Amino acid sequence: MKAKLITVIGVLLVFGLLETVGVEAQTRPVRAGQEELAHSVRLRDKERELAAREEKIDRREQELAEMEAEVRGELESLLELQQEARATLDGLTAAKDQAFRDLIRVYREMRPARVAELLDEMDDRDSLEILRGMPNDLVADILPRLERAKAVRLSRQLGLL
After folding, report:
1. In the chain, what are the domain boundaries?
2. pTM (2 decimals)?
């Protein structure tokens, strides 16, 4: 029985010592080697670099958002100006068209010989525009009264020859 008691005490002492060693191992700081320390420093540097990049990207995204808002505002202003310009042009075109119709009405009331005299003094483009605005029978009365070379040019442009 003494031997059993000594064995039990021995086992308890061994377990007690092992527990003490385990506790000591847990409380002692872990020692890192030079390679591990260098790796840790590199990781810390990379983390800082990534944080700086993220900050830079965030600033750039903010700048782009501000620029986009500015461009949208300018686009809206340009579209408004375009609509105003189109309305003004439409008004001018309508006024020009009305003035042209009035001019054609005046020429229709004139004698063909007088209209031919006036057209001879004008350039071909203006003469052609006026003749295109008149009825074909009136054009047929005016063309023979024009200077011969001009009558030929205008006839070609009118598609009559």
Report:
1. 36-94, 110-161
2. 0.47
